[in-house]
User: Which sequence fits this backbone?
């Protein structure tokens, strides 16, 4: 892992088979196996998908619908890099907030990367 660079890019239609395989390996119970995010970012290491952020655009914010990182690579800063890319994207799109509606088990992660709890959702002002 050390010395490798995470390649982050927007999800494309041609990524669907790789994303289905990725979600199947992760055992993501929240996402049906036959659906891929309509819009978001994907992170690759050595050509393999290791992280996916599902996004939605609202009038005033960029909403994170889901963040999935390969189990073996968690706690290796991949989630932080993905959220940094989301922040840069929000700035480019003139959105001043990033909102996470359903943090689930990742509440501590979102707190560590600068989000504040607003009831059941987490918000980060940019």
Assistant:
């Amino acid at each position: 892992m050390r010395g490798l660079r995470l390649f982050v890019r927007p999800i494309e239609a041609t990524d669907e088979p790789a994303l289905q395989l990725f979600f199947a390996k992760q055992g993501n119970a929240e996402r049906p196996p036959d659906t891929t995010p309509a819009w978001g970012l994907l992170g690759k290491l050595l050509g393999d998908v290791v992280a996916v952020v599902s996004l939605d655009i609202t009038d005033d914010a960029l909403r994170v619908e889901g963040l999935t990182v390969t189990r073996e690579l968690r706690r290796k800063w991949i989630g932080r890099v993905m959220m940094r890319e989301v922040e840069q994207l929000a700035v480019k799109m003139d959105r001043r907030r990033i909102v996470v509606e359903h943090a689930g088990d990742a509440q501590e992660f979102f707190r560590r990367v600068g989000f504040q709890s607003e009831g059941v959702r987490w918000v980060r002002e940019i």
In short: The CA atoms of residues 6 and 81 lie 8 Å apart.
